[in-house]
Amino acid sequence: MNRLAEWLGERPYRSIALNVVMLTVLLALIGQPQLFLMIGSIMIAVLAVAGLRGTLVRWRLSRNTSHPYELTYLWAPGATAIVLAGLGLWLILGADSGSPSYILGTIFFGFEAWLLVLLGADLRANRAEIVEAR
Amino acid sequence: MDFPIFHLDLLGNRGLVAIIAILHVLINHGLAVGMMPLVAAMEWYGHKKQDARWDQLAYKILFVCFLITTTVGALTGVGIWLSVSLVNPYSIASLIRVFFWGWFIEWLVFITEVVLIVAYTLTWKKRSTGAAKVRHIKLGFALGFFSWVTMAIIVSILGFMMDPGNWLTDRSLLVGFTNPMYLPQLAFRTPLALMEAGVIAMFLTLCFTRKDPELRTNAIRAAGLWIMIFAPLMLVGGWWYYSKVPEAMAANLSVGLLTLQFTEWHDLLIKVIVGSLALILIVAQFAIYRPNRVPRWLPLVPLAAIIWMTGHFERVREFVRKPYVIGRYMYANGIRVDDYPLLQRDGLLAHATYSTPLTSAEIGKAPAAQIPHLQQGRTSS
Predict the structure, then answer these.
(1) Residue spans per domain, chain B
(2) Where are chain A's structural domains?
(3) Chosen from B234, B273, B285, B286 to mutate, greatest number of chain A CBs within 10 A
(4) Which of A64, A102, B158, B224 has the greatest CB tally within 10 Å of its CB?
(5) What is the ipTM, given to two decimal places?
């Protein structure tokens, strides 16, 4: 238990990611697609706002020097994660609980939510680096 | 003119065409059309950053593509001509009549492409600095462009075979070339090729950068981004293409996707296709977020998914055309739609080149039971 607590403490985002994964598993176990859609949408919206804030800050700080490649790197991963999380919810909504589509949708959703947490964390780290550099 | 019937035991005629054509499409899309712009972009990036490591990586990837495209790619290209000429000479003859100048231009473009890839690969090390390097990078992008043009011409013929559009009433090359399926299919195949190249580049990068973790991280991330940019475009192109498939062919889609036995699995397979695309994107995302943790086997997962998707797409394209080989113009057995009423009335033998109607003396020598049939056949001819 202590080792788990230490591991979680090493990176602040790990506890958020763990919460997100646990909530996804819980929603999957409840087995109600409508409920999954409602709570899952709110979860993705909150994570997307957190990611968007970080992205906007980084974009403002670097836009004078940024290249299309860097802009794509900044915006595309988050946008793709949101779209794929939506795809996961779509798969869940059209399937019976426990069916292959339902499980696949849950895996997509959980993975994308986890990636959105990572995105927010990476952007915060980037922002700290930029502020430090200035 | 009549042609002898070709039949291949065990593998079957369809199997022969499918193996050669799909292998050619995978090489052409993944290693030529998609890869050449990516290699040129890597070379340009290395030159811009004055980082020779990018240049070396781009060259190694190009060399693999050069070897495969100029051997297996070229042979399967010729193999397509051989196999389709054997399997359905009537349809290829009709297509040559319609697209003679199209194919002639494609041949010129293909020769240009071959010259460019040879020049691009063999002059890489000589033109490594200054203005010569800039010219070499331009050569790379020109090669990418010509690779795409060959595909753009051939896609028109593939589209024509699905739906000739107004060509049935106005038989000119331009009308045949700009058939209703042309642009949607091109809009689908172009990002598909670019995405396939991204997946292959990711795999090759992992093979070639074992001793340089920093380059590996940046290059894997770049390949992931490349995939991520073109995947949504492929989805949009695919949707446009699907929406333009003629109604009669769309009705064949379930059989085309899964054979008659499994048509009820249609909805599940659509989800599997969407899931495969999502899987490719997930690997690309992982490569962007954590490039240093991508194991060498991981790009094989999206590679398998994209090979399966491309192969299945080609299979469906061939299957949904039935009963036609050229939509509303020629049946799969080589009989033109316009000729069908005549052949139905007179019989096939009456118009077959190598079937001479029997003379009265020959009919007289036949067994008594067959004489009325033979006389009837002679009358109708």
Answers:
(1) 12-346
(2) 2-133
(3) B285
(4) B224
(5) 0.71
